[in-house]
Design brief:
single chain, seven-stranded mixed sheet, 12 helices, about 20% strand
Length: about 325
Amino acid sequence: MSEIKVSSEEMKLVLTKLFLKYSFNKVQAEKLAKIHTESTIDGIYSHGINRVPVFIDYVNKGLMKIDAIASEVASMGSLERWDGNLGSGILNALKCTDRAIDLAKAHGMGLVALRNTNHWMRGGTYGWRAAEQGCISIMFTNTIPNMPAWGGKENRIGNNPLVISIPRKEGHVVLDMALSQFSFGKMQSLDLKNEELPFDGGWDSNNQLSKNPKDIMESGRALPLGYWKGSALSMILDMLATLLSAGNSTYKIGLKKNETALSQVFMCIDPSNFSDTHIQENLLNEIIQFTHDGPPMKIGDKTFYPGERTLSTRLKNQKEGMVVNSKIWEQVLNL
């Protein structure tokens, strides 16, 4: 696979020009370029630079409304419902995250349920954003049916990404995971490198579990993490996102030709409302240190808390530049 190095400054400049060309205003274009670049810096290429051609395809197909933005449709104290009006999933998620943070600052906890939105790209973006504002967050989204429920043969549940973040002075704790054993974005990245998955990630066309990302993507049947447990969690998150937002379920989304009009939840908690803020950092560090101190299975390995490797990848890419697939970069430049 041919690769090139791109600085964050160059990527933001190129992407800003790209989004301006496709009729986003200057503020929107700069936000979109920033988020896609930050995801790439953090090593999440699948929902950073690699996803840009798909993003533009949605714009060209009219699935994403350039001039639309999320708007409030109902308010119940610290709980609100918003409609994304089929606007950019990134711009909608940023707005709803910020609103959930504001509600948490005012009430201790705030929840915004969003319907009719598009793909939010890297869900962890909004977890990091909440943590930077001193808030704990729990966020999730439903998707098209892209996994079989445990014991089933056809895709009937989504890999519904789940984000949980906790602010911490020495480095925020941020869990960002799809409910498939491997996200389709991860499988795409490994396929571009002609690499296999380290563990079985789904079924091939012969109904056999496989480590080959291409075979799994062609069958479209990913393996739920934790087998039956991941299957159950996927259904629960879909139920919550659908009920709280009064939006589309994975079933309804699957009736469409493309993945659009999703339902999402953004919940934030402001821990500064508790009287024991002076010990919160110590409690987090105690848990992390206990895990770090455990002996590794293999010499030279170590354990990590959620988000730890993202921070090290971020520092490395900020210093050395990002290694980008040259074919993807050429696609972006041609767009």
